[in-house]
């Protein structure tokens, strides 16, 4: 069989796991990359490329960074590439109907939850917040609704007690990327039959903001604070208010149903060990 011609769409560092694996495969050919455009960051507002763009340019791949996928020129460009399919892993853009219909095998997407559970942008954080014993990933066909399309493959993954957002994301994306080349080959050979989602069982996640990391030491249980700490690591992190300022808890442990805080960072100050912080702020009495 001829190699599957793929347009790869992704933006995050985790997306590069899939791209690297696919490039090593003799089953597929990456004909173009879709990734988000450069964004200004930091005090100097220097434009920063996505990890996928940096990786792709090193590999001398054809990179497209459209601000809008509804731009007729972009749609025509994607059409001209005549891909067999588009594969998405953490691209963070909605695909319009005009593009969905272009590849002959459709658009295939990796989502880090067991759909229809935890549709949306924060499935891993939601699984940790809800203290799930297991989660997983889904590979599905994209349709015109978010995370709504027919399921092609799912794999369950155990959530360990020490897993945080970063480690669980790493685990899911590594596992998913390892299986993707052979899976796509099976799908192209029509040995995989799409299965509709049970939409009555769908649950939805929300977009996080910095304010979601707020904790109320006096009202929230130690277990709830610990789950928030894991779910929101490394961003937005967890924080509370003290002396009129935001106090971020940067390192903690959960032992014998108690929270043990190791490091904190007061707004506008550097990170400090808790004991060092208490020595500098004698009136501190939160924990």
TrEMBL record:
Q: EC number(s)?
A: 2.1.2.9
Record-level GO cellular component terms: cytosol
The Formyl transferase C-terminal domain sits at 208-257
Limits of the Formyl transferase N-terminal domain: 5-179
Molecular function via GO: methionyl-tRNA formyltransferase activity
Q: List, alphabetically, the InterPro entries matched.
A: Fmt, Formyl_trans_C, Formyl_transf_N, Formyl_transf_N_sf, Formyl_transferase-like_C_sf, GART_AS, Met-tRNA-FMT_C, Met-tRNA-FMT_N
One of this protein's Pfam families, by short name? Answer: Formyl_trans_C
Q: Does the keyword Transcription apply?
A: no
Coiled-coil regions, chain positions: none
Identify the keywords attached in UniProt to this record, alphabetized.
Answer: Protein biosynthesis, Transferase
Reactions this protein catalyses: L-methionyl-tRNA(fMet) + (6R)-10-formyltetrahydrofolate = N-formyl-L-methionyl-tRNA(fMet) + (6S)-5,6,7,8-tetrahydrofolate + H(+)
Q: What class of enzyme is it?
A: transferase
Q: Please name the CDD domains in this protein's record.
A: FMT_core_Met-tRNA-FMT_N, Met_tRNA_FMT_C
Which sequence ranges are marked TM in the entry? Answer: none
What does the entry list as the binding residues for (6S)-5,6,7,8-tetrahydrofolate?
A: 113-116
Job of this protein: Attaches a formyl group to the free amino group of methionyl-tRNA(fMet). The formyl group appears to play a dual role in the initiator identity of N-formylmethionyl-tRNA by promoting its recognition by IF2 and preventing the misappropriation of this tRNA by the elongation apparatus.
Record family assignment? Belongs to the Fmt family.
State the NCBIfam families in the record.
fmt (TIGR00460)
Question: Could you identify this protein by its name?
Answer: Methionyl-tRNA formyltransferase
Q: Which organism is it from?
A: candidate division CPR3 bacterium GW2011_GWF2_35_18
At the highest ranks, the source species' classification is: Bacteria, Bacteria division CPR3
